[in-house]
Specification:
Layout: E1 2-5, H1 17-20, E2 34-42, H2 46-58, E3 65-68, E4 84-85, H3 101-124, E5 132-141, H4 144-159, E6 165-168, H5 169-176, E7 183-193, H6 195-206, E8 211-213, E9 220-223, E10 227-230, E11 235-243, E12 260-269, H7 274-280, E13 286-290, E14 297-301, E15 310-319, H8 327-344, E16 353-363, E17 370-375, E18 378-382, H9 388-405, H10 409-414, H11 428-444
Parallel strand pairs: 2-3, 2-11, 3-8, 5-13, 11-18
Antiparallel strand pairs: 1-9, 4-7, 5-7, 6-7, 9-10, 10-11, 12-15, 12-16, 13-14, 14-15, 17-18
Helix pairs in contact: 2-6, 2-9, 3-9
Length: about 450
């Protein structure tokens, strides 16, 4: 019998804005008693709910499934991302998103499988297009350096047989209303989501079959013939556990000194008025990924269920191995995002940011996931390497299939990876990583 005490919980700064602009959710109970289950999924984000949904497809209804979420549904990283589901190569550790041809081809097949799974969930749970829609992905450049990134990426896509189209400055302005972008690269096959609404609707749909508990962090894990997950007010005994907690997996004692905890930051405007929307022009809903991986991501979303038309600006990345981001990083992000907004939307002078927040990513040096059976009948579906919507969905599906089936076609493809590589020792890791990110952000120049 092995007992692990979980003595820390990650802290996400600021509100989960995508969740805040929705109508309040009825929510789920907090676990306040001792119960038993056949399966427990820890974490109700993209990986956790994908694992849960896949289990409901693979297991008979007599099997009891419990989901434990440390905070409120969609308050954690699942409701804090930019809402892109990207099918094509998107390595944040690289200079141009691309990896090796063979690895990227396999990754594309898996990513599209995950997006299909999410689309099926969207249909099953009756999600409108404002919550989930298959869409193109547009990468935008505002400098000659950015154009070179686009051309390099386009060559890589051509080498692996992927189709794409190039958008000129006029087409980029017609799309965004902004004259900031001088060239774009458009690909098909991805999706765009309102991440908090998607997670909420998935949880609501799954709650007809499984038991979900909110505000129920795991504070102790004891493994044995029956594993025990202790929470502040109760406990669950279960034969099978899937940990879908991304970088927080290290707090459980797994993958020590192998995972990077990166915070990214974003701001969201207040609701735009009809006059401001007229000044802006462009399409009602769009998203732009930066040509430089360290540049600025921008989304424009239209009104959904009273949430209003808004613009989201996302940039800055910091390494925070403590799983907390200091206020100094939030202040730095605020200054950068206000400038990025001003550069792109001078016609919207006077539009304030209503929400500012940070969210956690988990990366590994070699861009490998923290996946697999880590103790007998305990599986990890963690370390999404900056693509939580897609890689989280994928690892959750794969963990459920490995736990129930042992092997599958999906697993045969997904398991073609190494374990996360070992990190350099502190303080060299944090000092070196943050200096490197600042240098890359400086190099991004106007793309930021």
């Amino acid at each position: 019998m092995i007992q692990k005490k979980i003595t820390r919980l990650p802290k996400d700064p600021g509100p989960a804005a995508w969740n805040s602009i929705l109508h309040p959710d009825v929510g789920y109970p907090t676990l306040e008693q001792d119960i038993t289950a056949d399966w427990v999924i820890v974490g109700a984000g993209w990986a956790g709910l994908a694992a849960t949904r896949r289990l409901t497809q693979l297991l008979p209804e007599s099997e009891k499934i419990v989901v434990l979420e440390a905070s409120r549904i969609a308050e954690g990283p699942a409701g804090r991302n930019s809402g892109f589901m990207i099918d094509l190569p998107h390595e944040l550790n690289s200079d141009s998103y691309a990896g090796s041809n063979e690895r990227d081809l396999n990754s594309i097949l898996l990513n599209r499988h995950a997006i299909d799974f999410a689309e099926q969930a969207a249909m099953e749970y009756d999600m409108p297009k404002a919550v989930f829609s298959r869409s193109c992905k547009v990468t935008g450049a505002s400098t000659q350096q950015g154009i070179q990134h686009i051309l390099s990426y386009a060559k890589h896509l051509a080498d692996i047989g992927e189709t794409f189209s190039v958008k000129n400055a006029g087409e980029m302005t017609a799309m965004t209303g902004s004259s900031f972008y001088i060239k774009g690269l458009q690909t098909e096959g991805g999706a765009m989501v309102q991440p908090a609404a998607f997670i909420r609707r998935c949880a609501r749909g799954l709650s007809q079959r499984v038991s979900i508990y909110e505000n129920t962090p795991v504070v102790e894990l004891t493994s044995g013939d029956l594993h025990t997950l202790r929470t502040p007010k109760g406990a669950v005994k279960s034969k099978h556990i899937i940990l879908a907690v991304n970088g927080h997996i290290q707090s459980f004692g797994f993958f020590p000194k192998r995972l990077l905890h990166v915070f990214t930051y974003a701001s969201m405007t207040r609701k735009l008025t009809s006059s401001e929307l007229s000044k802006l022009g462009g399409q009602s809903d769009w998203g732009i990924l930066p040509a430089d991986p360290m540049g600025t991501t921008v989304r424009k979303v239209s009104n959904y269920a009273g949430s209003g038309d808004r613009i989201i600006i996302r940039n800055l990345a910091t390494l925070n191995q403590s799983l907390e981001a200091p206020q100094a990083d939030m202040r730095r992000a605020k200054a950068m995002q206000d400038q990025s907004f001003k550069d792109r939307f001078p016609m919207l002078h006077g539009v304030d940011m209503e929400h500012r927040w940070g969210g956690r990513l988990c990366l590994s040096l070699n861009s490998m996931p923290a996946f697999g059976e880590i103790e007998e009948r305990i599986w990890s579906a963690c370390c999404q390497n900056g693509l939580g919507t897609v890689k989280g969905t994928l690892s959750g599906m794969a963990a459920a299939e490995q736990a129930v089936m042992g092997q599958s076609e999906l697993l045969n493809q997904f398991l073609e990876h190494d374990q996360p590589s070992k990190l350099p020792p502190e303080p060299f890791l944090s000092i070196g990583a943050n200096i490197t990110m600042r240098w890359k952000q400086w190099q991004a120049g106007k793309e930021l």
